[in-house]
Amino acid sequence: MKAFVTGATGFIGASIVRELLQDGATVMALVRAGSDRGNLKGLDVEVCEGDLCDPDTLRKGIGGCDTVFHAAADYRLWTKNPSQMYEINVNGTRNVLSAALKAGVEKVVYTSSVGTLGNPGDGNPGDESTPVTLADMVGHYKKSKFLAEREAESFIAKGLPLVIVNPSTPVGRMDIKPTPTGKIIVDFLNGKMPAYLDTGLNIIDVEDCAHGHLLAAKKGRIGEKYILGNQNLSLKQIFSLLQQVTGLSAPKVRLPYYPILLAAYANEALAALTGKEPLIPLAGVQMARKFMFFDSTKAVQELGLPQNSVGDALAKAVEWFRSAGYAK
Asked: Does 272 fall in a domain?
């Protein structure tokens, strides 16, 4: 296999690259000029320098590859320029898939998100078939990924052999930005998490998530979606696991939702004036109103998605954040 990987320097993308190399594949990594390439250090990959908004670079990079993993995305809970997020997540996806269609690749795995799926929000898990509309999307990230997933479906209709994967919340090593979930872990390690909201997430080891991408390329049915997830946990349970891993005290105070929502609105208004990221992102608080629980049975049964210990994944994340200097 010769694979073209977008988002190769990022959290999920770098893990996909490592899984591909372990599988004996040749990797062509799309890398933006000036981006942090630390996650690719020492890896035997070819580099295609460019970005999702450059169709010529994508066409050249994908040429000669038989498989495309489109894992790149602008993943932030707040941005002072929402149009840029849509340009990368929606138009960038269109550019990648158009190049893949013209190149006649054998398989495309598009990395979406569970955030684009329907979810009851009351603790009952959603799955690939739970009804959902654009109106259900909270914040520009989810909206842009929802629209990008519709782009992917339009290319399936055009004959592109594409499989959609919907990762839940990966944790583990090499979360360089870090992701919003990684920041929660970092804040916990640095004693900046005195309280919590009553919400929940589906957690998966990022290495299992990356392996799920390869399984989707090999076994996934064209046109199908697969949730790459593992264990549904409340935020309180996640902090309890982090306490077991680190010996640090988990927060015991549960915050009321509406006062925090009001504070988030105030933070968002201030951010609009200053251009600085809000301390309390509004989209994050609005998302927390729902328990983001999901059922990954389809991926486990059809693909053989690994379900390794979430506690071990959190331990790997803690060890990496500490060794990389993110935590005291």
From this structure: no
Cα–Cα distances in angstroms (integers) from residue 264 to residues 65, 140, 258, 270, 284, in the given order? 45, 16, 10, 10, 9
Task: Give me the number of domains the chain comprises.
Answer: 1
pTM attached to this predicted model = 0.95
CATH number reported for the structural domain that contains residue 23 in this entry: 3.40.50.720
Please indicate, yes or no, if residue 318 is contained in any of the structural domains: no
Distance, in Å, from the CA atom of 96 to the CA atom of 88, rounded to the nearest integer, reads 11
Q: Mind giving me the DSSP string for 220-281?
A: PPTT-EEEE--EEEEHHHHHHHHHHHH-PPPP-EEPPHHHHHHHHHHHHHHHHHH-SPPSS-
List phi, psi (to 5°) of 29.
-105, 125
pLDDT of 287 above 90: no
| Those residues with Cβ within 8 angstroms of residue 183's Cβ, 6 or more apart along the chain or in another chain | none
Q: Please indicate, yes or no, if residue 108 is contained in any of the structural domains.
A: yes
Q: Name the strand (E) or helix (H) holding 271.
A: helix 257-274
Residue 283 domain flag: no
User: If we measure between CA atoms, which residue out of 21, 31, 103, 97 comes closest to residue 60?
Assistant: 103
Number of other residues whose CB lies within 10 A of the CB of residue 244: 13
User: For 241-261, how does the pLDDT look when each residue is reduced to its tens digit (9 = 90+)?
Assistant: 999 999 999 999 998 888 888
Q: Identity (one letter) of the amino acid at 312?
A: D
Query: What is the Cα 128 distance to its own chain's centre?
Result: 16
